[in-house]
Amino acid sequence: MSITPSELFVCVYNAGRSQMAEVGIDITAQTPKILTTDAVQASNV
């Protein structure tokens, strides 16, 4: 059985967006989402 890891990045006031850009990750198609308990639990598989 192969498990694909997932990561959950949480930032305040888009602070993480500029950090991602400094390492060349294109996140222009991404939109901010509300942090929910379900999202946290899904990233902890």
Could you explain the architecture of this structure?
With 45 residues, this protein is mainly alpha-helical. It has one domain (1-45). Helix content is 31%, strand content 0%. The protein is built from 2 helices and no strands. The chain has helices spanning 15-22, 37-42. The longest helix has 8 residues, at 15-22. The model has no long low-confidence stretch (mean pLDDT 79).
What structural class is derived from the secondary structure elements?
Answer: mainly alpha
Residue runs with pLDDT of under 50 for 5 or more positions: none
Strand tally, please?
0
Topology pattern, helix = H, strand = E: HH
The largest pleated sheet is described as: none
Rounded radius of gyration (Å)? 13 Å
Instruction: Indicate the proportion of strand residues.
Output: under 5%
Anisotropy-based shape? globular
**Helical content class:** 25-40%
Number of helices: 2
The overall pLDDT average reads 79
N- and C-termini, Cα separation: 14 Å
Number of separate domains: 1
InterPro entries: Ptyr_pPase_sf
Protein name: Arsenate reductase
Key phrases:
single chain, globular, mainly alpha, Arsenate reductase, 45 residues
Structure at a glance:
This protein is mostly helical and 45 residues long.
List the helices and strands and how they pair.
Elements: H1 15-22, H2 37-42
